[in-house]
Amino acid sequence: MVTFARALDERDWETYANTYTEDGVFAINGLIEMAGRDTIRAKTSSEQGLGAYQGTWHLSSNHCITIDGDTATLRSYLLGVHMLSTRTRDHADGAGWHDCDVVRTAERWRFSKVRISEVWHAGRALAHVPPSA
Fold it and tell me: Domains in the chain, ordered, with CATH?
C-alpha cells in the first residue's frame, strides 16, 4: 500500500501499475472501474486521470491485513489531496477507505482488486471522479 501511494504521488506510473496483477482491477464507488495492468497505468496517468493534477498526496493509515495462505485482504483509511494549480488553496480532496484483495506472486504480493469507497470530499470537485447519481 505504501509503494502504491508513493508511486502515484511521484508519478511513477510503471511502479504503480506493477503493484497489480496482470488482470488486476481498480474501482472507485462503482463509478470507475479499470481492469488490466496496462489499462490501469494508461488511464491513471492520463489527463482524465491523475495526470490532470499539478500534484497529489495519497495517505493511508489504520491498515488491517488478513493473510490466508497466498491470498490476503487489506483495508486501510484513505486521504487523497489533489492540487489543481500551483496555488496551495486550489485543491480537491477525497477520503474514505481502500478494500483490497491481494495475491502472492513469484515476485511479491500484488493487488488483484483495489476498491476505493470515498465517503467525503472537500475543496473543489475531483475531476477524475464522476459525480455520483
Answer: 2-122 (3.10.450.50)
CA-CA distance, 43 to 49, in Å (whole number)? 6
**Of 80, 91, 96, 85, which Cα lies nearest the Cα of 44?**
80
Spatial separation of the C-alpha atoms in residues 65 and 75, rounded to whole Å: 7
Q: Which residues of the chain have pLDDT under 70?
A: 130-133
Contact 70, 104 (CB under 8 A): yes
Q: List, in sequence order, the alpha helices (H) in the chain.
A: 2-9, 13-17, 37-45
